[in-house]
Write a structure and sequence with these properties.
- By secondary structure, the chain is of the alpha+beta class.
- The strands form eight sheets. The chain has a five-stranded mixed beta sheet with strand order 2-1-5-15-16. The chain has a five-stranded antiparallel beta sheet with strand order 7-6-20-19-18.
Length: 749
């Protein structure tokens, strides 16, 4: 019997209480025995009528049961629980465990009704002779009722009432027990009790106890282990093996008491009893971690957790949803791929140390479905500042446990490129791009509300004079030239670029509205890797935006499953997406990733470095996978720039998009794509996007030699004019070749 207490108060008062309790017990015993005796006396019958002892239906809410997260291969990756419990059927419990529990708790369980008359009387006599309450007489059915009432209690007051030593409570329990005995067979009652009972060490129910104490399922328990757990159930607070040596000694004594009782009842032989008593306790103290900090994939686990907590489908409010997550006994199948996760983890670890203050973060998603296959970060998830741990989901947005994110930098230029191609511009279209750009007036740029947001007092600059010249959609993108993209944004309209970004799923990490300012195309908005990887996946899937998907199936405690399908929509013409792919593919061969190179199959992407080296990005994709890698200092980009800094044991004068993020992207993608058949991009419709319209490049001056470059625009676009030198190393002063070096305006808030 659980929560057993011993009363050693004044003997006279104790005797009075016992007499009263004895009278009540006698009435109860007579009342319950009445149906069995047939010709009961008038007094017993009157007692039943006076006490109104009729069966009363007991509300039995589902037991709090742990929720499991499993990966795409159905292997467990995390768990949430309020109480560590896994409900099992009686046939999943070793017969010797059932025998041991019945022996010590209620050996006449299969013979009596809701109350054991003999047991009650025996306990009463023992209590009277020993001058205190030393033995209880509750049947297993009564104990089950009591545990249900305790579990239902939400407040401390309700919990106290559920265990109050009053006659009224005992009468209520008895009415419930009478109903339980009518409703269920004895085996069903025993099964329910084994699942609700607390055994100590944080283990609720026999399955969790067997795993916690002995590292095995309840079906595999032997005599020694069964006797130990049967002994623990009486007063788990006193015999909790985790409390200390004294508690373990008390548990050992209880185990031997159970063995003696089993021998006395001839359930085991003297030899078996002696052999079992000689054994050590054998407690293995198996950790049963819960929550995302204990998960192998903590950042992804956090994402899944918030998917549940934010979704009204799982409850009217966050409190209801949290209860479902912690108590619902769900099995949540997720999209995470351990191989791809390992690829991301290894690549990040190679370039960024856990001890570094800047943190590298990466997300990998599947174009056309939105499935998140990996979420990794260089710093361990946890709450220890001393260990340099991250206490929030740096890979995701605030809605999924993340923070404010990092400025996107030049990876945002692709939205301006896509808007220009959608409007009808061709690969060869362009215009002169000076070293510095000033808006002609406040009305040069208008946000989507029609408000003037141009800033004629501010000059957007490239990294050096060498960046100036006529730039086309191709060469301007490959060199990531700031002045070209601000002029291109002016040409297509700021609102058109903002709308393009939005329909590709771009949103600020902090949940606020996108800042619609002159330097929008240069990436002033703070974002996260999951969001950016998903936006780039639109190009890989030929114009389909898919909402990031982390959960594919949820199975409830009864095995009923619900599937969750990708939520995708066509947001961009297929041919426009193909045209974007054609240009971004050149970033690896003619642009800012030249020194890093590609992945041995069709791929496209864009580097991103922000003003004053506050963050560095690379976002890219193949037709199979899309990924984004960010690098920044969570302490705040201002004042913690990525220059004159050692990261991963290597010194960097400046950190460009290709320096670290690009390399992480390349190595992780090669490993993640291993074994996946390569798919080619759809060829660009040259009849639509080839050549130029009225914005053609000026003809080059005639030279004496007939031979010229293969690409007629190569003379205008040296490959090192953008986010950094082709090898991403930042040679020269102040970041030579960084096409997005001009000041970035960050709006207040």
């Amino acid at each position: 019997m659980q929560a057993q207490r011993k009363d050693r108060s004044n003997p006279i008062l104790a005797l009075l209480r016992l007499i009263i309790a004895g009278t009540a017990a006698g009435v109860l015993a007579a009342a319950v025995a009445l149906p069995a005796v047939g010709g009961a006396g008038v007094s017993a019958k009157s007692a039943v009528e006076a006490l109104d002892l009729k069966p009363e239906e007991l509300d039995e809410p589902p037991l709090p049961e742990l929720t499991k997260l499993v990966d795409a291969n159905n292997k467990e990756i995390g768990r949430f629980y309020y109480e560590n419990r896994q409900v099992v059927s009686l046939d999943q419990v070793a017969p010797i465990m059932r025998t041991a529990l019945i022996a010590i708790e209620d050996f006449r369980f299969y013979q009596h009704g809701p109350i054991d008359v003999e047991g009650t009387a025996r306990a009463l006599i023992k209590n009277l002779t020993q001058g205190g309450v030393t033995q209880g007489g509750s049947s297993i059915t009564q104990q089950y009722v009591k545990q249900v009432l305790v579990n239902k209690a939400e407040t401390p007051e309700e919990q106290a009432a559920a265990i109050a030593p009053t006659v009224s409570r005992k009468l209520a329990e008895l009415r419930y027990a009478m109903a339980i005995e009518k409703k269920y067979a004895k085996d069903q009652i025993l099964e329910k009790y084994l699942n609700i009972a607390y055994f100590g060490a944080g283990a609720h129910g026999i399955q969790a106890a067997a795993k916690r104490f002995f590292d095995k399922p309840a079906s595999k328990l032997n005599l020694v282990e069964a006797a130990t757990l049967a002994g623990a159930v009486q007063n788990p607070a006193r015999t909790d093996p985790n409390v200390g040596p004294e508690s373990r000694e008390r548990l050992l004594e209880r185990r031997n008491t159970v063995l003696d009782r089993m021998l006395q009842l001839r359930m085991i032989t003297p030899l078996e009893a002696a052999d079992a008593r000689a054994k050590k306790l054998g407690y293995k103290d198996i950790e049963f971690p819960g929550g995302c900090e204990a998960s192998k994939f903590p950042y992804f686990c956090l994402y899944v957790q918030y998917e549940i907590l934010n979704n009204e489908e799982f409850g009217k409010n966050p409190d209801e949803r949290r209860k479902l997550l912690q108590r619902g006994g769900l099995t949540i199948k997720t999209t995470i791929d351990p191989k791809m996760q390992e690829a991301a983890d290894k690549a990040i670890k190679k370039y960024v140390s856990r001890k570094d203050k800047p943190v590298a973060s990466q997300a990998i998603v599947v174009p056309g479905t939105g499935e998140i296959k990996a979420m990794a970060a260089s710093r361990k998830f946890g709450g220890s500042k001393k260990k340099n741990e991250m206490s929030y989901n740096v890979v995701a947005d605030a809605a999924h446990g993340g923070g404010t994110g990092f400025q996107q930098g030049s990876t945002a230029k692709v939205y301006t490129l896509a808007a220009a191609l959608e409007e009808g511009m061709k690969y060869g279209d362009g215009f002169p791009s000076p070293a510095g750009y000033k808006a002609g007036g406040y009305s040069t740029f208008k946000n989507c509300k029609g408000q003037n947001v141009g800033d004629p007092s501010h000059t957007v600059r490239n990294s050096s004079e060498s960046s100036a010249g006529f730039k086309t959609l191709e060469s301007g993108t490959w060199g990531s030239v700031n002045t070209f993209f601000v002029k291109l944004q002016e040409r297509v309209g700021l609102c058109s670029v903002v709308k393009m970004a939005k329909k590709l799923g771009v949103k600020r990490s902090d949940g606020n509205k996108l800042s619609e300012v002159e330097t929008f195309t240069l990436g002033v908005n703070e974002v996260d890797p999951v969001t950016i990887a998903s936006s780039y996946a639109v190009f890989a899937s030929r114009g389909q935006y898919c909402k990031p998907l982390a959960i594919t199936e949820i199975k409830d405690r009864d095995g009923k499953a619900k599937q969750y399908k990708p939520k995708c929509s066509q947001v961009l013409e297929e041919e426009v997406a193909d045209a974007v792919n054609g240009i971004l593919s050149g970033v690896f061969t003619k642009g800012t990733m030249t020194g890093v190179g590609g992945v041995g199959r069709d791929a496209a992407g864009k580097t991103g470095t922000t003003d004053n080296y506050m963050s560095a990005w690379f976002a890219g994709y193949t037709p199979n996978l899309a990924s984004a890698v960010s690098l920044g200092d969570p302490r705040g980009a201002a004042g913690h720039e990525l220059r004159s800094i050692t990261i991963g044991g290597r010194y960097y004068p400046q950190v460009f998009g290709a320096s670290i993020s690009g390399r992480i992207w390349k190595e992780s993608m090669i490993a993640a794509l291993k074994g996946i058949e390569a798919v080619e991009f759809t060829p660009v419709d040259r009849s639509r996007f080839g050549g130029c319209t009225e914005h053609c490049a000026p003809k080059p001056k005639k030279e004496k030699k007939d031979e010229g470059p293969d690409d007629p625009f190569d003379i205008f676009d040296p490959p090192d004019n953008g986010d950094g030198p082709p090898d991403g190393e930042g040679r020269g002063n102040g970041g030579r070749g960084r096409g997005d070096a001009g000041p970035i305006i960050v709006p207040a808030g």
